[in-house]
Specification:
This protein is mainly alpha-helical and 138 residues long. It contains seven helices and no strands.
Length: 138
């Protein structure tokens, strides 16, 4: 069974990619659908080209969409890897952490203390890894 947080439209795009090797997303301006695609990539360990496509489109979209998408992306990408130095999802994880910290005053208004601390802890951990373990360019 497919995770209930992933719509049929998004799953159809995943299947098209699996059969053709080409990412076909008719929802590249829809933050919610892109979050679903990223979730599918993380949950089902989908191939790197699809992960990278989802991250690339989200990277451009996150700064101009609701900060709530940044919160969701941070949670998805944080849970997707055991080691935050892992390069998979690093682009989306760092961008979303930055935006979560930037818009914390909006994001934290309606959530309880335990969820607030969990979210902020994740954002700070991601920021620490970005600063103290930068990606080495060959």
């Amino acid at each position: 069974r497919v995770d209930p947080h992933i719509s049929a439209e998004v799953w159809r795009s995943v299947l098209q990619f699996m059969y053709t090797g080409n990412p076909v997303c008719k929802f590249e301006s829809d933050g919610a659908k892109l979050c679903e695609l990223l979730r599918a990539c993380a949950l089902y360990q989908l191939p790197a080209p699809l992960q990278n496509h989802a991250q690339s489109v989200l990277y451009d979209l996150l700064p101009v969409t609701s900060p709530h998408f940044s919160k969701e992306v941070l949670n998805i990408t944080f849970d997707a890897v055991e080691d935050l130095k892992d390069l998979r999802y690093r682009c989306a994880r760092e961008a979303s952490a930055c935006l979560v910290l930037r818009f914390a005053h909006l994001l934290l208004q309606d959530i309880d203390a335990s969820e607030t601390s969990k979210l902020l802890e994740r954002a700070v951990k991601v920021s620490e890894v970005a600063v103290f373990h930068p990606v080495q360019v060959a």
